[in-house]
């Protein structure tokens, strides 16, 4: 995905997730964001894609599934990020893929807040 597509998807999901009837709370989005930020720090320290990063990224999927199981409103967020994780792992350029993943999650958090997410 290019930067424009990442921004478009992030705004779309951020807005949907901020909807007061069907959206999710800020703490649910921030919990995922905190986990992704820890991955980002580890990635920057390593300076490259590592098996450890791949493992951590893949293990985010069950955490997302658990959150979606507890609250059905999290499901669209869980589905998007699970597909994104699969795309990163399958990518030929994993470094670029994971950087796009980080940007996507950061964008969703920003647009969730912008659109009034609780």
Total E-strand runs: 0
**Total count of domains:** 1
**What characterizes the major β-sheet?**
none
- What's the average pLDDT? 91
What share of the residues does DSSP label as strand, in percent? under 5%
The radius of gyration over CA amounts to 14 Å
Q: Level of helix content?
A: over 70%
- Low-pLDDT sequence parts: none
Helix-strand makeup class? mainly alpha
Q: What string, H for helix and E for strand, traces the elements in order?
A: HHHHH
Distance from first to last alpha carbon:
29 Å
Instruction: Using the alpha-carbon principal axes, give the shape.
Output: globular
Number of helices: 5
Description:
This protein is mostly helical and 118 residues long. It has one domain (3-114). It has five helices and no strands. The chain has helices at residues 3-18, 26-46, 51-70, 75-90, 94-114. Helix 2 (26-46) packs antiparallel against helix 3 (51-70) and helix 3 (51-70) runs antiparallel to helix 4. The model has no long low-confidence stretch (mean pLDDT 91).
SSE inventory with pairings:
Layout (H helix, E strand, L loop, with lengths): L2 H16 L7 H21 L4 H20 L4 H16 L3 H21 L4
Helix pairs in contact: 1-5, 2-3, 2-5, 3-4, 4-5
Q: What's the quick description here?
A:
The chain has 5 helices and no strands.
Entry keywords:
about 120 residues, mainly alpha
């Amino acid at each position: 995905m290019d930067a424009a597509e990442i921004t478009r998807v992030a705004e779309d999901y951020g807005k949907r997730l901020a909807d007061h009837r069907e959206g999710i709370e800020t703490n649910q989005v921030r919990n995922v964001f905190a986990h992704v930020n820890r991955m980002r720090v580890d990635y920057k320290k390593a300076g490259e894609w590592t098996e450890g990063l791949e493992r951590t990224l893949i293990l985010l999927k069950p955490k997302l599934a658990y959150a979606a199981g507890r609250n059905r409103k999290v499901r669209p967020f869980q589905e998007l990020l699970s597909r994104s994780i699969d795309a990163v792992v399958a990518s030929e350029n994993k470094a670029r893929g994971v950087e796009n993943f980080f940007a996507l999650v950061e964008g969703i958090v920003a647009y969730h807040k912008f659109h009034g997410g609780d």
